[in-house]
Design brief:
Length: 174
């Protein structure tokens, strides 16, 4: 037993919340559309969340294009916060762990399960590939750097015209 809202197959079922009359009469709304089979939640007279007939969830959008689609007009789009430890995101294609991303106040890391290592680390303004504690702006551990044909790495002083050294890739010897 419980609350039941029944409408026609082309109708809409509503739970409405209001705090006034006129334009303020229904500033909050839960709506189910039988025509398109979606559920929509409105707050402050604007769409806050939509769940469509494919169970795709849209926050800030009427038409979600993925299982979770977040649309925002500013840079504060997604926030992960923990009370202890480090927040993380895990990618599990086919149900198996493939990648993990986590962050702390000074570190952003990407873990690759097939390699059993943290393969990419930003630590105190330094980038580490294959190391969790990079010592320089770029620290590559246990690996090579490959340059495509005619691509270069340049070493220069503050004045790019003085003391310039370049290393250029040559694919003919691959």
């Amino acid at each position: 037993n419980g609350l039941q809202i029944t409408t026609s197959t082309t109708g809409n079922g509503y739970i409405l919340f209001g705090d006034g009359t006129g334009a303020d009469a229904y500033t909050g709304e839960i709506r189910y559309s039988h025509t398109d089979n979606f559920m929509r939640f409105n707050t402050n007279s604007a769409v806050a969340m939509t769940i469509d007939s494919s169970q795709e969830v849209g926050i800030g959008t009427l038409t979600p294009a993925a299982k979770l689609h977040v649309k925002s007009g500013d840079e504060n789009t997604l926030r992960l916060e923990t009370t202890s430890g480090e927040p993380d995101i895990r990618w599990l294609p086919g149900g198996s762990h493939a990648w993990q991303n986590r962050a702390s106040a000074s570190t952003w890391q990407l873990y690759q399960y097939s390699q059993s290592e943290w393969v990419f680390n930003l630590y105190n303004g330094k980038l580490g590939i294959g190391t969790t504690t990079p010592q320089k702006k770029l620290d590559i551990a246990a690996g090579d750097i490959r340059l495509d044909n005619s691509k270069s790495i340049f070493f220069a002083t503050v004045d790019a015209n003085i003391g310039r050294v370049a290393i250029t890739g040559d694919e003919s010897s691959d």
